[in-house]
Amino acid sequence: MILKNTFAKTPPLGWNSYDYYDTTVNEAEVKANAEYMAKHLKSHGYNYVVVDIQWSDPDAGTDRTNYQYINFSHFNMDEYSRQLPAENRFPSSKNGAGFRPLADYIHSLGLKFGIHIMRGIPRYAAHTHMKIKGTDITADKIANPYSVSKWNPDMYGVDYQKPGAQEYYNSIFELYAQWGVDFVKVDDICNTNFYIDNPYSAEKEIEMIHKAILNSERDMVLSLSPGPAVIEKAWHLEKYANMWRITDDFWDNWDSLKDMFKRCEIWQNHVSTGCYPDCDMIPVGWLGKGFGQERYTNFTIDEQITLMTLWCIFRSPLMIGAELTKLDSQTLELLTNDEVLHLISNSHGAIQVESDNKHAIWFSRDINDNSCYLALFNLSEESQILEISLKDIGINSKVSPRDLWKHENLPPVEDVLIANIPSHGASLYKL
Amino acid sequence: MILKNTFAKTPPLGWNSYDYYDTTVNEAEVKANAEYMAKHLKSHGYNYVVVDIQWSDPDAGTDRTNYQYINFSHFNMDEYSRQLPAENRFPSSKNGAGFRPLADYIHSLGLKFGIHIMRGIPRYAAHTHMKIKGTDITADKIANPYSVSKWNPDMYGVDYQKPGAQEYYNSIFELYAQWGVDFVKVDDICNTNFYIDNPYSAEKEIEMIHKAILNSERDMVLSLSPGPAVIEKAWHLEKYANMWRITDDFWDNWDSLKDMFKRCEIWQNHVSTGCYPDCDMIPVGWLGKGFGQERYTNFTIDEQITLMTLWCIFRSPLMIGAELTKLDSQTLELLTNDEVLHLISNSHGAIQVESDNKHAIWFSRDINDNSCYLALFNLSEESQILEISLKDIGINSKVSPRDLWKHENLPPVEDVLIANIPSHGASLYKL
Amino acid sequence: MILKNTFAKTPPLGWNSYDYYDTTVNEAEVKANAEYMAKHLKSHGYNYVVVDIQWSDPDAGTDRTNYQYINFSHFNMDEYSRQLPAENRFPSSKNGAGFRPLADYIHSLGLKFGIHIMRGIPRYAAHTHMKIKGTDITADKIANPYSVSKWNPDMYGVDYQKPGAQEYYNSIFELYAQWGVDFVKVDDICNTNFYIDNPYSAEKEIEMIHKAILNSERDMVLSLSPGPAVIEKAWHLEKYANMWRITDDFWDNWDSLKDMFKRCEIWQNHVSTGCYPDCDMIPVGWLGKGFGQERYTNFTIDEQITLMTLWCIFRSPLMIGAELTKLDSQTLELLTNDEVLHLISNSHGAIQVESDNKHAIWFSRDINDNSCYLALFNLSEESQILEISLKDIGINSKVSPRDLWKHENLPPVEDVLIANIPSHGASLYKL
Amino acid sequence: MILKNTFAKTPPLGWNSYDYYDTTVNEAEVKANAEYMAKHLKSHGYNYVVVDIQWSDPDAGTDRTNYQYINFSHFNMDEYSRQLPAENRFPSSKNGAGFRPLADYIHSLGLKFGIHIMRGIPRYAAHTHMKIKGTDITADKIANPYSVSKWNPDMYGVDYQKPGAQEYYNSIFELYAQWGVDFVKVDDICNTNFYIDNPYSAEKEIEMIHKAILNSERDMVLSLSPGPAVIEKAWHLEKYANMWRITDDFWDNWDSLKDMFKRCEIWQNHVSTGCYPDCDMIPVGWLGKGFGQERYTNFTIDEQITLMTLWCIFRSPLMIGAELTKLDSQTLELLTNDEVLHLISNSHGAIQVESDNKHAIWFSRDINDNSCYLALFNLSEESQILEISLKDIGINSKVSPRDLWKHENLPPVEDVLIANIPSHGASLYKL
């Protein structure tokens, strides 16, 4: 019945262009990152290459002084109100080829290809009464002039009650299927404000998109952004999407990382096959060039360990934000620790055991055997000795912990496991 | 310094096309109402004739089944992003004449001419990069794609920080001055939600409009809609506007009328020369044709007396909503009781003396002599005897009340004034 | 680890005194209802007898004209700030016996005994500096003067940070264990407002109560009221409680029943062993005597079928609100349909398949075999034919539905199941 | 009619014990401050000596580690639920004398005496069913158990609908009249939260208190705290009170002082005879001893000039927070600049002319002659040259400014007044 859960059986791993390129990524850059992934990351499970926002705007990124997105820009569209890649940025897309040649190349590397879209239909199409494919309806008849994003000027929401609305969504996903798209990140669709305040329901747009994917007959992972997603709608997200952001855009500062524990706390009972609450991209390595300020991540190595430990035990999708071609060896090692990555696809039932302003403890079990995982986090500003009574996590016998970050077996423990953890750091044990 | 207060020394009285015609009024209809006003109402103080919303849309009102306003309509504009009257509806506006011929006609009747506009610049102008008069800036550079009305699809707010923003407003008010406009009702600009939630400040648009009026060098009354206006911004409204709506759209139902007492309560200390909190149009007589359902007002005659009594003692502007050419004699009499209308221009300092769910008492003084006014309202569902101790309103001597609705002198009263008032009715006395 | 889930393996079924008696129930009345349950309901799975609010107040219900709860009442307490049954209402509680004799009697009938308490410590104890058992601390040191219920005047919340706080909760649950209490309904502890607005965290009081139950070493079901519980805290409720109200007090009107579909929608993925979102008592039969207006339920029989169908497929606890000794045969039949009640303990994974303002469809599976359940609800004001494609619920073969309310086998169905359902009614099928 | 406006014709000036003593002030300390005032401040207009919160609690201030106010404290009361001064702190109050001897002493110095009270009736009186003077009603019958302060644990609000409610307030103000009280600061009664969220209307308590003052037949200034007062209720405050706080507690940090400009902006049109929006005490000189940390004000001298300039042109009441006996000469000079203080009683109609994040300009007129006042504030972090066009404030002729802080006449100015103002500083000119 719910086909979507059959083709994303474990959380997707990959790379996304946003953290480094913002709105500016081009074909050569995408290819270079894909090639790096094929060579260095694919064997560890990473396989999605995702082109993020504004790929249809030829001028994207040219006026960062005034705005991130260009107001009232005239981006590339076909006659059916459908956005096409900007040809100056994606030369292979010329002559109506769209993203097909790029997708083909990425597939040839054994990887999968993803794109970002904004919910809705281009505003320009509505104002100039453009066509909807396969209908005699025009864009102005399905666009909702009151349904506008709070942060991007391009689109109007589509009113599901109007004839032609589903046909529009079908038409764009048919195009993506023709291109060979494997993953679609739909934006401006799952955050709290939109859901709660807005009478022009994002819910219905999610359902139309889900239906359009089924109609396209191609497996495409459906990823919803931005967050925070609304927990009241957990059931709806679980029914129609594969992953949904549980935070606003996540960047490399400690307060945001610490805050993620609150978000994972709320969503801990909502991770299941095909359904992944999403902690957002991993802002490590080199970032921010497209924003006009290339920089190395602000996260310390201990904070990066905390990030990877939480994402992996919680089983968030893992989308690397770094420019891959510039990855240093320490970051590469962090991202490719197979003992840690193992949890993403082989653990389940993660719960928060304890949590306060200074520490957190998470616990999960392996799906294959009796082993279980214990993550200890030091959220305070000083190094800290954390203790956890094994009885409190249901373990009544002696256990031999293995430190998955250090690849070390520790001496057997009875009753209480004790760990000395640096400030902002974490330990992850297999028991 | 504050010139605006010099040309609206008392609350404006007149007629507005909205309650009867909605978006559909045409030139012949405006003229017919103006002619009626000149003949029957002018001598009682009414003199503004105001053309309300959508006068630039040739198709307005043609698709009421789907919406009040036509989404993405292509209405009449000049090359400078300025809306012009739809020529099919206002034939005299052809050949670039605009509203000038109609204004001239209305002036010839000894009346004043007003128009409605929406805050902002047409969305279509922004998307097609139209010009701003007197600059080399285009509409897309000053329009704010996030500043959209919650109920009308036509405009984007103008970002006051952008070069060309003030010039745009100057250009439209120069046009209105050329036309001979005396009164501008600016919409989507003073309600609570817009002020409080929206970072794209309506405040600044009010200031730009005020400045544009000064720049035009023509006296134009500035009326702001819709309400409820925000009391925290009372000082700002008093500084820049002549009148501002203190309610959402007001219609002919008792609950709304009863609710107006709460609104007048809040605003009672904010009525002064040139500054008029506005209770909205008076929905009496025949209404609603443009909405597709012509009907006679739902207000009983007692409720109409309550309405007129409150509006007059509070000193709200009085804008008749009825189709004037269909006014029956009873309604005409109600609207032209000179003893009652006298308060609009000759009383001051109205305060609420008492108020609860069942009654209200208001009191004010005449600006010319020692007389004062007392209004008693029965807000309950049954007839009621109301009493007011004269001492409580600062009167320590015997007084002779005159009933201003009945044109009768009552016997002298000492200590306590007593009145038997029908359900939903009111009495108004001069003391 | 989580012992609470071991002694409430299926949703509790029973009777609660509130809907009929409000604050006034006495010992004889409790016994009479228990005796009825033992005779007529026990064999169908009902076994909890719960004494609801104000059992320690000798004067409860004597001044209904002024309030439901008596302000600043001097109810029965021991020297340790612990409430005791009012002896005039529960004669067997004299001489320090407390609820032990009544619990013994109920146990002798093969039933279980439950009581209601308010979160916190009696205000009177705080103001008069009474003792906390087993400590040298007084009530004023642990009571929080700012943590007061919005609807009951008796208690102050307990500040978990204060020495003596846990000891107080331990002391009251030790007393309940001595009495033989099997079920505790804790009130003023799980509704939205309290959790979100209040800095004096109900969360911590829930944790103290959970700990006090463990400390008492007696299995006591923990039920939290009132609702609506906060979905953000689902994980916390699942960790520490057995059942929690997902609505405000539920009564016999259609709008509230219809609204329950929205609440079950939100909570559908949160029903598991030992964890039961609670739709509140079942207001059927005779109700309201303690409120001063005895009446027969306002629910039609179709609405009652809708109620029972939703509660059973969703797996809410079932607590009868009616006075049992007055149950008519139709209501008794409704409450004891074993084919329907079977779902409470033998189905799982209920999800909402469809839902709008006019209908809802729910689906679940049996835990014992391949059979599954389908509930169709007509929420509209007219009778309605509902259709459900079997493929949409993952059934691809011919099925033979059994109507669980009518106890009838229907002809085999392929592809689409069709049912004609009366307004406000429901059908429940086993497939 | 509105007698309250006859005995507070200009904003009150004086001293309040809170900023230095918090809850701990005693008789000797009050007298010492009064003596200083009589000697050094009285001739400049200061004459109110106000004893702030917790004067009836003998233990106030003894347990600052745990709380500011002692939970469930047993403070001094008479048999009629009325608080009396703690005799250990106010020895002259013994034998039922109350505050009479202290008031007499202060009156003997040519000064006036004020006290603080909390809205409502002592919680202890309600729980122990104490009497209400002149009635056979007990405190539990008029106290509202749900109406509790968010920050002080002593009182319950009084329910105006209950017999005995007005009698209670009458009884306490009769007592204050007997004592010779001239000023009552009523707390927990005018802030936003209380007014808006709370169904137990503070409005009605204000009206009861106003009525009790009239009933007492003694002129007592009515001051309401804390803020921020609600602008929607401006009309109500103006009708029943003399002064009301427009901010939460104000302390000596720049952000709060800068924020005051926003508050004065909102309230600028609400200052009139007998009606004074109140910017709160002036935290200069030595502060904080009662809070456990005696300290010299954090305000720089420029910030203090900004404070005094704003308070004086806005015409806030001026209540000194400093310990007077420790006043240094610079602070004394600041507080006693007669040219500046002159505005408090002799200017009117102050309005904000300009305001943004970096500066503010205020303007008012003298009530005696044609002179006017101009205050320029530098709110930025750097010194700044501010300019104001005289035409913009309605002055079309040459003027000769006098600098009221420097006591200097400046050269005549035409068109534009220019001032160089230090960061966080202000200039005040008489024109």
UniProtKB/TrEMBL annotation, chains A, B, C, D:
Look up the coiled coil feature and give its residue ranges.
none
State its Enzyme Commission number(s): 3.2.1.22
What keywords is this UniProt entry annotated with? Disulfide bond, Glycosidase, Hydrolase, Signal
Main EC class of this protein? hydrolase
Q: Which lineage do the record's taxonomy fields give for this organism?
A: Bacteria, Bacillati, Bacillota, Clostridia, Eubacteriales
> What range does the record give for the signal peptide?
none
> What family, per the record?
Belongs to the glycosyl hydrolase 27 family.
Gene name of this polypeptide: agaA
Q: One of this protein's GO BP terms?
A: carbohydrate metabolic process
**Domain Alpha galactosidase C-terminal residue range list:** 358-431
- Pfam families, alphabetized: Melibiase_2 (PF16499), Melibiase_C (PF17801)
An example Gene Ontology molecular-function term:
alpha-galactosidase activity
Q: What is this protein called?
A: Alpha-galactosidase
Q: Which organism is it from?
A: Clostridium chromiireducens
**What is this enzyme's catalytic activity, as reactions?**
Hydrolysis of terminal, non-reducing alpha-D-galactose residues in alpha-D-galactosides, including galactose oligosaccharides, galactomannans and galactolipids
